[in-house]
Amino acid sequence: MDELYALIEAKIKESGYQGDIDGREFYNDISDEADEKENGTYVFLIKKTDTLLYKGCMTIMDDEFDLHSVDILDGDKTYHVDFDA
Question: pTM value?
Answer without folding.
Answer: 0.91
